[in-house]
Design brief:
Elements lengths: L15 H12 L36 E4 L3 H10 L17 E6 L5 E6 L5
Parallel strand pairs: 1-3
Antiparallel strand pairs: 2-3
Length: 119
């Protein structure tokens, strides 16, 4: 017997309906109790970080990392919707791909990750 993947991510919210709508509108994730989000197969990283890590905000218990395609175009769309997008040259590598950060309406950090193209 083995775990085969993540079956869901459940988290508390001050306004679950509005938060789910934000994920649907801006990231295309079928969020909420009534929706099922069918993901593309791909790598998933499951990694505890030290409690004093500065990789993401200390006041947040976790950061959501989402695999994306077309990161540059997505960043433009998000910024046009008033969502700040943070990018840093040191986050991007040939081995791991390209990254950007946003925050959902309740401050949860979201890392957008475009893996490197497979040769």
């Amino acid at each position: 017997m083995a775990v085969t993947g993540i079956g869901g991510l459940f988290f508390r919210s001050a306004d679950p309906d509005a938060r789910a709508a934000w994920y649907r509108e801006h990231l295309g994730i079928e969020a909420g109790h009534a929706g099922i989000w069918q993901q593309d197969a791909g790598m998933t990283v499951f990694a505890p970080f030290p409690a004093d890590s500065d990789y993401f905000a200390a006041d947040q218990p976790f950061m959501l990392n989402l695999r994306v395609t077309g990161l540059d175009a997505l960043a433009v769309t998000l910024e046009a919707s008033g969502i700040p997008v943070e990018r840093r040259d040191e986050w991007d590598t040939d081995d791991y791909g390209h990254f950007a950060r946003i925050h959902d309406p309740e401050g949860l950090p979201i890392e957008l990750w475009e893996p490197p193209a497979q040769a």
